[in-house]
Amino acid sequence: MLLSSIFLTTSANGVQPARHIGSMEPIISTENLKKIYRIGKVDVAALRGVDLSVQEGEFLAVVGPSGCGKSTLLHILGGLTPPTSGKVLVDGNDFSYMKDAERTKFRRHKIGFVFQRYNLLPTLTARDNIAIAQHIQGDGFNPHRFEAVTEMLGIKDKLGHKPYALSGGEQQRVAIARAVVCEPKLLLADEPTGNLDSENSQVVLTMMRTLNRDFRQTILMITHDAEAASVADRIVRMRDGRIIWD
Ligand code: ADP
């Protein structure tokens, strides 16, 4: 049986309501954020004091050379790893004051993730890979939202396929659908076009643009690709663990 039929509920809205850019409270706020990894007796300073503020509705690209701290920043913002020092608020919440279960719940409800390697479950169809996100979140299957998201991402005719029968671009579009189907306040994308050829990259980037513009999805995307970054409406450049240009 399909997960979508197991978790079918009658909950309503398909498309997120419009949000205002520039509301008083930023969705992301960091202050002097530092992260030091200790490898044996060696300290690696991945972040050396990052101050960043992102408003709801923004599409922000964080760019910079490999090793400059982009992934570390994304992982901290997603509550996947704690900072060594400094302050980080996501939607007004500080992960450091949350217990593990609370942090997990917060992530499920507020943050969607897209990774370079798609991370789809290989034994499930595209439909169930997306529907399972709604199941895990616990609010049940929302058919309107599912319809709106899969339509926008152009994957409706691929929903019965398992990941191995999809191209890289299609797999990434399924992964994006999974990330946003629960209407997260924030989408964190880690090199979403890193595994794609230029044609598929363009398709995925155009869809992320649409997601931001038409669904008012706040997006923070990290990339080392200047072309990918150009679809965002704000670009932050990092180097050696710091923001050097905004
Ligand atoms: P980017 O995403 O820009 O490539 P990262 O955030 O992955 O940069 O890495 C920043 C620095 O932190 C690099 O020097 C990297 O080697 C180091 N680093 C990242 N993750 C770890 C880790 N888990 N353990 C030790 N060092 C790490």
Please give the structural blueprint:
Blueprint: H1 3-6, E1 28-39, E2 42-54, E3 59-63, H2 70-77, E4 85-90, H3 100-110, E5 111-115, H4 126-137, H5 143-152, H6 168-180, E6 186-190, H7 198-214, E7 218-223, H8 226-229, E8 234-239, E9 242-245
Parallel strand pairs: 3-7, 3-8, 5-6, 6-7
Antiparallel strand pairs: 1-2, 1-4, 8-9
The structure holds adenosine-5'-diphosphate (ADP).
Adenosine-5'-diphosphate (ADP) binds next to strand 1, strand 2 and helix 2.
Give a written overview of the molecule.
The radius of gyration is 18 Å and the shape is globular. The protein has one domain: Rossmann fold (3-Layer(aba) Sandwich), CATH 3.40.50.300. It is of the alpha/beta class and 246 residues long. The longest helix is centred in the C-terminal third of the chain and has 17 residues, at 198-214. A hairpin with a 2-residue loop joins strand 1 (28-39) and strand 2. Helix content is 32%, strand content 25%. It is built from eight helices and nine strands. Residues 1-22 have low confidence and may be disordered. Helix 4 (126-137) runs parallel beside helix 6 and helix 6 runs parallel beside helix 7 (198-214). The strands form two sheets. It has a six-stranded mixed sheet with strand order 5-6-7-3-8-9, sandwiched between helices. It has a three-stranded antiparallel sheet with strand order 2-1-4, with helices on one face. Bound molecules: adenosine-5'-diphosphate. Adenosine-5'-diphosphate binds next to strand 1, strand 2 and helix 2.
Name of the CATH homologous superfamily: P-loop containing nucleotide triphosphate hydrolases
The counted number of beta strands is 9
- Class from secondary-structure proportions: alpha/beta
- Ligand inventory: adenosine-5'-diphosphate
Provide the number of structural domains.
1
Overall morphology: globular
Strand order of the largest sheet: 5-6-7-3-8-9
Question: Which H/E pattern describes the elements?
Answer: HEEEHEHEHHHEHEHEE
Q: Stretches where pLDDT falls below 50 for ≥5 residues? A: 1-22
Quote the distance from N terminus to C terminus: 49 Å
The CATH topology is given as Rossmann fold
Tally of DSSP helical segments? 8
Hey, roughly how much beta strand do the residues contain?
Answer: 25-35%
The value of Rg in angstroms is: 18 Å
Mean pLDDT equals 87
